[in-house]
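Example 5.3 — Diacylglycerol kinase
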Amino acid sequence: MAKEKGLISPNDFAQLQKYMEYSTNKVSDVLKLFEDGEMAEYLQGDAIGYEGFQQFLKIYLEADNIPNHLSLALFQSFKMGHLEDTVENDVVCLSDVSCYFSLLEGGRPEDKLEFTFKLYDTDRNGILDSSEVDRLIIQMMRVAEYLDWDVSELRPILQEMMKEIDYDGSGSVSLAEWLRAGATTVPLLVLLGLEMTLKDNGQHLWRPKRFPRPVYCNLCESSIGLGKQGLSCNLCKYVVHDQCAMKALPCEVSTYAKSRKDIGIQSHVWVRGGCESGRCDRCQKKIRIYHSLVGLHCVWCHLEIHDDCLQAMGHECDCGLLRDHILPPSSIYPSVLASGQERKVSKTSQKTMDDLNLSTFEALRIDPVSNTHPLLVFVNPKSGGKQGERVLWKFQYLLNPRQVFNLLKDGPEAGLRFFRDVPGCRILVCGGDGTVGWILETIDKANLPVVPPVAVLPLGTGNDLARCLRWGGGYEGQNLGKILKDLEMSKVVHMDRWSVEVIPQQTEEKSDPVPFQIINNYFSIGVDASIAHRFHIMREKYPEKFNSRMKNKLWYFEFATSESIFSTCKKLEESLTVEICGKPLDLSNLSLEGIAVLNIPSMHGGSNLWGDTKRPHGDTHGINQALGATAKVITDPDILKTCVPDLSDKRLEVVGLEGAIEMGQIYTKLKNAGHRLAKCSEITFHTTKTLPMQIDGEPWMQTPCTLPCFEDLGTPGQSICPSHR
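Solution (predicted structure tokens):
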């Protein structure tokens, strides 16, 4: 379907996806309201007018203020084409609307196939005629085009699928036939959101990919075409046309050893093509890539060689440059093999073992290669837009896929259980500060025998912890192999972590929920928390307005400007008292609008509120080390000038802020720092009115309360810093 025939713009579609990301409703639930619920008054046969369509969007997207241009563009898009001959121009088919949104929302492909079929089976006889099936396929094509698929290739695949279903040529299709055909059409399943689960039975882990250079299909060996889309396997880089996926050879990657002979020694796994470097690692001569299928690459050590050089290569694979991080299949095996039980691997018993191993990680045992540090990777695929998803795919190829966990699907618990007894392992968290906090909190609860050190690959915005650990302010597509080498050479440093308890006073006012009980980065009260709270509320209400880093910064600037004008936290010292290690902190000579308590020297995406300190000559730890453990409280202004923030010194830095303008000056480097108030090991706040607060960037409004002293949690919060940056 051409874009000029009623498709909404790419920007509108991106905005729609943002709404759906924040919504928890399902199409099936909304449909019931229109069929026999409170929205039935808007139904005209199987159609709804514009007012009914707006109600559908309002309920489904859980948004009261959907931009009129978006709802109108969507409504117009459903009026196009086949509908003009069957319904009035001022109404759209409810089945088409429901089908379209059900294809976009999360869920199993099988469930989507069944739901969309039943939408058009109006007489409930389990049969669709050719015109109804065509309408269903049109909705699939529309979704595919919005997702940037090449529909010119998908259309013949679906047409071929229909020919195979319609054996007698009658043009009618049963539900069973539709489900059976759809479940074996790989491109369609990928479009519908095929769950990427490891089967270890030869199934590829497909993902759609558009190729910026000429690539050839591993099956038919013809060109996929420059800029065209095909399917690529995350495990072995096997590449095919969409229509060739059903006939593709089995995936040659096994993620664990299935017999005793495979334990301990890893063999090369060669796959034809995919030689991106263009040079043979054996003879150092060019691999002439006039045809993509020339040459071989190993999926574990990533060596690329000529076909003729294969005989000269040894059988054993050392996993290449990333061997320190990789758990090769030879290091992962079923527990039953380790127990000494004999097991004959017949077809039936092999299937039983596969089902067992893949349903629970406890059925597998890990025995890593000596002198290596296996890496456990957690990825939040929603962090950083589509960055998280791409990082997930890349790590599944660079490492053993069993080392890489999708946090939205599995959560962190499964990975921590799997790696519980792995000696020398490390953890890499790919996400923002919130994701890092989630992982650290889960590690606290997991009661691990040894707490692994944690590194961060920053995705999204903010990333204050990653900045102070020198991993940078955000991943921008750098080579992940190089980042893993940086991680290998890094050193482990301890990071203090602090607990906080909010004790509310007796009052009729109601507080927001406290987001965290653990402080990893910072706590603040007053002006900056007020800006963050307004930003948070607006983003929850209008998610489509916060879909890029630049927009987020502009909104933050607007709220900061408004706060500087109205000064909602003016004379903060009159509404709270502060105790450090049991002694009151004198704020009488200051006019503050905010107080920040820092565990790390980065806040709000890179602002250092404590400011730079000229280190004394000689000892790099300067005054911090000289003071020793006895100086739990430092309030002397002259000494504070020489104090250097340290995330492992068991002390917090306390900074006063005069207002939003001062915060902006610090962020833009026009001013060095806020007011250094203290450096201490315990702090308590007493507030007398409702004030905005935040922990690690998560704000809330808090009624009068007491926030008792922050206590160091000890060893659970370890982190990794690259030693050479």
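Remark. Residues 549-566 form the longest helix (18 residues).
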